Structures are given as C-alpha cells and as structure tokens.
What does this fold into?
Amino acid sequence: MCGIVGYVGPKEAQPILIDCLKRLEYRGYDSAGIAIGGDEINVYKTEGEIAVLEAGMPQMPGVVGIAHTRWATQGRPTTENAHPFQGCEKGVAVVHNGIISNFMELRESLAGDGHNFSSETDTEVFAHLVEAELKEDSDLLETVRIALKRVEGTYAFAVVAPGRPEVVAARNESPLVIGVGNGENFLASDVTALLKYTNRIIYVQDGETVRITKDSVTIMDADGAEVKRAPERIAWSLEDAEKGGYPHFMLKEIFEQPAAIHDSFLGRIDAVEGDEPFLDGGSFSSVKIVACGTSYNAGLVGKYIIEELARVPVTVQISSEYRYSAAARENPLVVLITQSGETLDTIAAAREATKRGNRTLAIVNVTGSAITREVDHVIYTRAGPEIGVAATKTFVTQLVALYLLAIELGTMGRTLTAQAKRSIVGQLRNLPRSVQDVLNQAGTIEAMAQKYSGARDMFFIGRNLQYPIAMEGALKTKEISYIHGEGYPAGELKHGPLALLSKDTPVVAIVTNDRTYEKMIANISEVSARGSPVIAIADANDTEIIKYADDVIFLRETPSLFSPVPVIVALQLWAYHLAKARGCPIDKPRNIAKTVTVE
Ligand code: M6R
It folds into this structure.
C-alpha cells in the first residue's frame, strides 16, 4: 500500500503536496518522492520517511505536482525504487498505488523498443507506456487511457507531463479521491490528506480516468463516456485527522472511543427497533463473517454475540482463506468486516460471496470505500478517521455494529423479547461510560506495562467472549511493541503452550465475572505454578483475584456480553505503553501498513 497526492492551482504545489502527503504516511513510509510540473518535470525522491524527503529536497517552483509515500511490494525500499518514475529525464512522471501484475511482460516489450529502466518496480513500466504514447498534440487523459489498456492489475495512478497544467489519474481497486477547492483541485488516496484544504470530495470509481486542472474536474468512465458526479461534503474535520495534543494518533484514537461508540449507535437504536433495519427482509440459514486481522477478531466476538442474541449459527473465516474454501450447502448472510473498506482480501471475498449467490453485508468505517460497492447492505461504524496503523476505535465500533446486527437478527427471528431488547439497548448505552472508566486508569496501566516491557514473549488468555479479546490484545502487542504475543483460549494452555511458560513469560489473563470465572482461576493457578507472572484484568468488586495474580487491572463490572469492550480498551493501553516504554514507532510499526491492498 502507498499514498498518492496531486495538486493543480494558483499556489506553489511543493509545500501543499508535502503537507497532504504527511497525512498519508500511515499508508507506507519506506521511501517518498515528489514531481513538480512546468515546461519540464522535476523529480526528487529518497529512501526513508517523508521527513527525510522534506529535509533533503531543493525548492521546486511550480503550481502542478504529484507526490508519493511508499510501502514496498515490488522491489526493495530504496531511492531508485521510490516514486515518481519518469519515462525519460524531465519527462512524464507517474506515482502509483497497487500492483501491475503483467509488468514483466510489459517491461520486456518496452525494453525491446529501446526503453531503459532504472528500478526493480512494476510502476516504472507505466511511466514508459505513457511516454511512448504521448505526442505533443495528444490529450494526456486520452493517452493515459490508451496506456491503461495494456495494464493488468490494481492501481491508483497519477500522472503529470511537461508543459501541461493538469494532473491525470486513474483508479482500479486502489482508493482515489478528488478534492474540489476554489480555483484549485486535489487528488489523494484518502480524504484525510485533503481535509485541511477542502471537504468537498468526489470518490473516483474503478475503471475511471480523471483530469484535474485548477478550475475543472473531468471524469471518464471505462468506455470513455464523461461522468458527471457532484462532490460530497465530508463531515470529518481537520481536527479529526490531527493529533490534537496527543503524542501519537493511536493514543488519541484510544481516547476517542467513548465518543466513537456513542456516534456509532446514535440514531441506530431506532433502526434496530424496526424503523430502518439494516437488512430489508430476505432469508438466510446462517451467518458467515469474513475479515482480516483486527476485523477478524471483531468477527470472532461477533459470533458469540449473534449466537447469544439471535441463536443463528455463525462461522468466522479469514478473508484470504474464504475464497478457496468449498461453498457449503447452506445459504448464509455473508458479513464482511473491514475498517478501511479497501482490504483486497476482503473485497475478493465479497465478490466470491456474491458469485456464490449469498447476500452480503459490509461493516465498514470509510464512507464510499471500495467494498461498499460490492455488497448488498452496509453498516457504517462512524468511528471517524483512524490514522494509527493499529486499529483501536474502529475495532470497538465494529463490535457496536455487531451488537446492533445481533439485536436486529434476534428481533427478526423472535429470539429476543421486547423486554430483553430494551435491557440490551440500555447496556449498550452504558458502554461509553465503562470505556471512560478504563481511560481514567491509563496511568495505572502505564506503570504496569513499564514493569513488563522487557519481556520477549507474552501470553494473553481468556474464555468465551474474552478469548477473541485475548487474541486481539496479543495482536496489538506484537504489532506495535514487537513483543511476541500469543492469544489463547485459557483452556488450551494445557494442550501444548504451557511448555513455553517460565518466569520470563508474563501472562495477561482476562478474569471478568462470568460463568467461566472459576475455570479461569484454575487456569491462572496452572500458570503461576510454572513461575509466570500473572497480570489479571478483573472486575472492580473482585476481592479474591489478588490472591492469584501478581498485578491486577480492575475494571468497573460490565454485563458479560458487553465486557469485551472495556477489556480491549485496557489491552490497547497496555500494548501502547509497552511500545512506548520500548521506544517503538507506535503509529507506524515496521513492515505494516494501514490499508492492505495486496493479496
Ligand atoms: O481495513 P481492515 O479492517 O480490512 O484491515 C484488516 C487488517 O489489516 C487490520 O485489522 C490490521 O490487522 C490492523 N493493523 C491491526 O491493528
């Protein structure tokens, strides 16, 4: 995954492009580059983060330009492989997000025509393709369309050419938006890059090629017909996309969770009460949840919630595995969970589900993202922009969406009485308060995390609904603190992993007050017997737990169906403070990108 931006207007393009690009750094940060247009195109690019680019680049005058921040997929993260690429010196320049799958074939053919290549990347071939087609009197948008006919794969491209006050771009399965300003226009991979300059956004669709000049926007569909699409006004503010005084986006996003949860169910309680249901009738025999990473863990919690409230059988599958599994003889509602809505594995799964004739519903955070066009129904999680690579507020709002869906399914299937529903809705409304209580304990959690931050390995255990939360705690920990974290159902330790426990392996145990409590106590006793320190997450009124644990994070008691929410917030803070104590780059962990648009 990479981030691209483009600008045409009356102002100097260089500072605007760098400013926008910095907001896309979560999409990749191993190299970066910029191209500024004029009679000739000047390019500057370098290995490393955008700060390195900014520190080294010369002043590049010009009012047209494109820029790129890269997360290497094809070719190593070096200066040579950084974007933009040019067909020839000072000529056409191209930035790209995606993968050109037939690039070897194109490269051989272009090399045969005398083109020389300076990088290992797939993108460079596109610069040469455009260069080869572009004549002095030809139209750049048409030229890009002709060049695209030879390209197979996924892309968001942006192109500038000498002597042309325009940026041309194209999209196929990689995000691309146009920002409409006053006498200036923008392009970007993501709305958040542009919020400082405009909130009027046009979402470019797959197959479309677009041109921005300083005062016009042209969109062509795959057949070359002009498309008229008015900009949408985006409600997210610039402040939503900035750190607002927090040292990291992740911490800001953790602290935004009470508001995010509130926003995610605001007005929706009526929906689940029948006024505006997510699903408009139709029948299905089961639910299949398909997702990756943190969204998959949300799906695992969703299984327990839906089975409990709606008594519908639920299976959960990793997106990249789903499409290769045989279609069982059933007619499931396929629920795809993805905060970005751009994860290629999950989009491919949505297409496969449609091919199998199943009804599809996406739980997604980003308005207008690719998956929303692939499915029959959408539930937006309304968490606001999430910039930190580690998913936090999008996870808890995915859980809220799953509670709401379960309530609707329970109502449809008549497994929930009106009274039970009222009580569940009341508990849902209390969630922001329970989360705020956890946030109030951030200092205690920080001190505890510091104590264990030297560990190399760490286990996370829980049962029932808390088992996927243990998995999510482990994923957060490994992703940002680089401590090897393993999430396990507590009952499974004795079937193998106990062999790994020692005094150097802290075990974080979720021991909230539910029907698994006694069993959890037995499990942590097994752990202590191996000398492992136990950090328990327990209810505030549990006076016994201290006998079994070395340290305890006490949380306000929450009904067991909802306690995954406060518990995961405690574990997010735990992972954050482990990472901080270890000096890790929290918002941009190594080798990981926020949106994964490769399979
Ligand atoms: O955008 P998605 O929800 O589809 O992303 C799926 C995973 O890549 C994502 O959840 C990843 O695991 C997070 N970085 C975890 O914090």
